[in-house]
Amino acid sequence: MKKELVFSGVQPTGNLHLGNYLGALKNFVSLQKSKNCLYCVVDLHAITTFQNPKELNSNILETTAGFLASGLDPNKSIIFNQSSVSGHAELAWILNCVCRMGWLNRMTQFKDKAGKDKEKASVGLYIYPNLMAADILLYKATHVPVGADQKQHLELSRDIAQKFNKDFNHKDFFPLPKPLIQKNISRVMSLRDGTKKMSKSEESDYSRINLKDSSDEIVKKIKKAKTDADPITENIKDYENRPEAYNLLSIYSDLSDQKIETTIKEFLGKDFSSLKAKLSEILVETISPIGKDIDKLMKDKKHLEDVLKKGKQKASIIAEENLKKIREIVGFV
Ligand code: TYM
After folding, report:
1. From CA 35, how far away is CA 54, in angstroms rounded?
2. Which of 9, 197, 209 is nearest to 113 (CA)?
3. Which fold has domain 205-296?
4. pLDDT exceeding 70 applies to what percent of the chain?
5. Of 35, 151, 163, 200, catalytic
């Protein structure tokens, strides 16, 4: 049996939010208890859209602080930044030559991010999913914890792995990585529009809970969160047309580690103000300590740099060993 290895990444583009926490970071932390894990601050991905260099530098450290504040332990997991291990870029180039244009043309995230004027999007943004495949395959990772928005990219990584194995006649060389997507809440939605995912790039800060929000901000944002006039009803099917209501119920359920049906029973017949009050409470309890910890960790940048440096050393050993074999398979001298 192949050794299990977990890999995942988060872009250092500022403001980690509740979607990142519930969709990814929380899962990262539970996986480190039982599996070998690599968690990467994907700075090469970040620059596919222009980043102010000073801000990028600080965001790399702040994302690292976010990892630690959420409970990742550098003694259990390998924590590093992508640009510090050059094998990511090298393997991405090889995979650019394996992946087909038609495959990339189907990527919905490129379409969303490039917007109407795709001619002006960077080439990096277009081939972004190949770099993501390289991140995972460089370590021969078998499991990838992500939010539902990354599912299509994961499927592409599997296709690329399969084509590489077939083209170079090396059956099973790259394992086909499996996405690990949270069941209760795979996609945290915007607090202003329950049909859109919560995201850093959404203009209104009221659409998301940032991990660094103060308790007051959290309470205010939940108070203002969009809902509807109906009370909480029993039939889960009713919520198909109530996306904002469903989102708040899901967030509360996930934070309380209970099924949505249990939450519905808890608040049955009540209006949303009672759910919002309890939701604020549990959010403040969970998120505020993380935010405070991020601020504290950011005061000791040397420590954060040391964490990344140690992680880089450990990641490089695995990457170099795999790359040696990959270069050989491709035929490089
Ligand atoms: P990124 O930086 O956009 O997001 C980091 C993680 O947070 C999850 N996430 C969400 N989950 C639920 N609800 C939301 N509203 C929400 N918003 C974000 C994302 O699914 C992700 O798991 N391409 C990736 C980074 C990446 C990567 C990789 C991931 C690069 N290389 C290799 C896995 C493996 C991204 O942009 O994530």
Report:
1. 35
2. 197
3. Tyrosyl-Transfer RNA Synthetase (1.10.240)
4. 99
5. 200
Q: Residue 280: pLDDT above 80?
A: yes
Residue owning the nearest CA to atom 9 of ligand 1:
20
Catalytic status, residue 200? yes
Percent of the chain with pLDDT over 90: 92
| Identity of the residue numbered 93 | W
Q: pLDDT by residue (tens digit) across 58-70?
A: 999 999 999 999 9
The ranges assigned to domains in the chain are 5-186+301-330, 205-296
Q: Which atom of ligand 1 is nearest to the CA of 153?
A: 23
Bridge partner residues of 135 (DSSP) = none
Which residues make Cβ contacts (< 8 Å) with residue 78, sequence separation at least 6? 37, 38, 39, 311, 314, 315
Buried b (16+ CB within 10 A) or exposed e, 262-273: ebbebbeeeebe
Q: 5, 10, 180, 191: which to mutate for ligand 1, most atoms within 8 A of CB?
A: 10
DSSP class per residue in 219-285: HHHHHHS---SS---S-GGGGGG-HHHHHHHHHHHHHTT--HHHHHHHHTT--HHHHHHHHHHHHHH
The type of residue at 124 is G
pLDDT, averaged across the chain: 96
Secondary structure class of 166 (helix, strand, coil): helix
Domains 5-186+301-330 and 205-296 share a fold: no
Cα 100 to Cα 131: distance, rounded to the nearest angstrom? 14
pLDDT in tens, 47-56: 999 999 999 9
Q: Whose CA is nearest to atom 18 of ligand 1?
A: 20
Question: What's the one-letter identity of residue 147?
Answer: G
Per the CATH hierarchy, to which homologous superfamily does domain 5-186+301-330 belong? HUPs (3.40.50.620)
Q: What are phi and psi of 51, to 5 degrees?
A: -120, 135
Return the residue whose CA atom lies nearest to atom 7 of ligand 1. Answer: 20
